[in-house]
Amino acid sequence: MNLDFKKIDCCFSPYLYPVYADTESIVVVIDVFRATSAICVAFHYGADKIIPVATVEEAMEYKKQGMLAGAERNAIKLDGFDFGNSPYDYMGNHVKGKTIALTTTNGTQAIEAARGAYKVVVGSFLNLDVLCDWLVKQNRDILLLCSGWKNKFNLEDSLLAGAVTEKIKAKNNKYILGDGCLAIKYLFQIGKERPTKFFNYSSHKDRFAKLNLKEDIRYCLSYNMAPVVPVLEGKFLVKAAL
Amino acid sequence: MNLDFKKIDCCFSPYLYPVYADTESIVVVIDVFRATSAICVAFHYGADKIIPVATVEEAMEYKKQGMLAGAERNAIKLDGFDFGNSPYDYMGNHVKGKTIALTTTNGTQAIEAARGAYKVVVGSFLNLDVLCDWLVKQNRDILLLCSGWKNKFNLEDSLLAGAVTEKIKAKNNKYILGDGCLAIKYLFQIGKERPTKFFNYSSHKDRFAKLNLKEDIRYCLSYNMAPVVPVLEGKFLVKAAL
Known about the structure:
The structure is a homodimer of 242-residue chains.
Chain A: E1 6-11, H1 17-20, E2 26-30, H2 35-44, E3 49-52, H3 56-64, E4 68-73, E5 76-77, E6 99-103, H4 107-113, E7 119-123, H5 128-138, E8 142-146, H6 155-171, E9 175-177, H7 179-191, H8 195-198, H9 203-210, H10 214-220, E10 230-233, E11 236-239
Helix pairs in contact in A: 5-6, 6-7
């Protein structure tokens, strides 16, 4: 038996995380539409730190202290904040060198849930390749934590988890896939050919159509537009050295 | 808008059930390897009632009262009981007309979790067609509850959930699929061609190989061998009228 085998598995909801949690794995938090995509974009545009917080009140507290702050609930930017969770909100010089507090419906809750893990990093289609390179270098068990929608399974986070699984397995065969990763690897094989069409039937379709978020969807499904690896250090997300 | 639309969604773990629970849906409990397969077989061979219980102690209590009782933990039949959870244990005249108490690692726990639902029924590949016919007749929202393995996602329960989704959608287009059902419908499209090969990589493979359960696997993946619909009525599972 090769003792260097590593596990990679997928947890489809922050609510389910206690079942998968251990203190040895690296947890990759995934919220494709849109928190983890926005976080990658913010760092790509030079943000210094992001403080993910669970509640709107905490985000407002930081805002009152003069910090930039983003807040989204039910896919809508909240009044009184600088940003929602659209990646477009974080593109430009206004984020450069800044620390930004952020709370979202799903993604920042998942980061919160995973705090006890060995390490927590942020994944999106926008940082897929650098993320996978970084993960393989760590030589650790990996848990992909999909944020879902209000703790329910969702299609887009699972699709990205499938992409990460496929890419990591292709880079290094030492990884043993858990059943969750086996399933989403198959899912990605189907979805990758036509990702936008793939989402035509998803629960997000109606939610996003009403809010006119077509451009956000298209962008969040683009590969490697924000090649950074945000990693949690204490209360801050920072850019990992690559 | 057509007000007659119904929802069908899938919950991948009993642990996650509170997130999906409502009092209006029919819940289909799925534990392909092997509790819900064994339950279908027992009814097909004439069992009168099954009492699913969460603990070994409860099952033993029924056994002491002179009832037949099955108990399985970690895929192994427990000493002092009449049956484990192999479908082969329940084939024959010895179950005819009997009431059987049953506790298993995953399946009976999932039934326990879902007790508050509008109705709870039992699904397996062995009752796929009659189950789907029955479900469509009820004209209700449906939640497929996969038992998983110790609350983790597993491949075989999800594959059956995909089969149920595909079949129900084919019978009647009024069903709107949740993201969980969309994903597993794709999964089933891949897995159905070669179900045994599909499981060559699953977490159950090693677990079952050690226990020499190849025949059980083959049988549990067979279609329509036990065409019954077990439904929960109070503390008893009974055969629904078809």
